[in-house]
Amino acid sequence: TVFNDRHFSCENCDGCVSGGFDSATSQIVLCQNNIRQQSHMNRVVTHELIHAFDHCRAHVDWFKNVKHLACSEIRAANLSGDCTLMNEIARFKFGLKGHHQTCVRDRAIRSILAVRKVSKEAAEKAVDEVFDACFNDLEPFGRIPHSKEDAKRAYRDFQNRDRYTANL
């Protein structure tokens, strides 16, 4: 169960960080001084909720295993809307073939570098080693939600996922 007053915190943050997940307190921090639009906040909350999901599901070793961190960052970038076409156009990044994967990879590396003192080469290596498996792990959505409608469909699928096998 998620409690807004317990699991979410709005704070002023340094730099250009928009949010974070604190595994020690199971709390999502939203950087109120760096979030200016509702759509941006929605992406940040989704991104950090994916980290929270990974923390509960996969027992991620956030501080000692950079591959665990890399996997969660790949999943969060892939599933949160960070790499939608419209966001990439707003960043003046254009591409056709494989652009979504390139964006996910680049954002995962940037996120690792923002939270851990590792070299860029170490971050790239960790992302590359786990990329395929983590990029294709679409839980809890079952698909990459490309729009609000797609996200609603994914949520309905999630709600109904055990409906057909419950009586077997």
TrEMBL record:
A cellular component term, taken from the record's GO annotations: mitochondrion
GO terms of biological process kind: mitochondrial protein processing; mitochondrial proton-transporting ATP synthase complex assembly
Pfam family, one: Peptidase_M76
Membrane spanning residue stretches: none
Enzyme Commission number(s) of this protein: 3.4.24.-
GO MF entries: metal ion binding; metalloendopeptidase activity
Lineage: superkingdom: Eukaryota
Coiled-coil regions listed in the entry: none
Keywords (A to Z) from UniProt: Hydrolase, Metal-binding, Metalloprotease, Protease
InterPro entries linked: Peptidase_M76_ATP23 (IPR019165)
Name of the top EC class for this enzyme: hydrolase
Keyword Metal-binding: yes
Family: Belongs to the peptidase M76 family.
Protein name as catalogued: Mitochondrial inner membrane protease ATP23
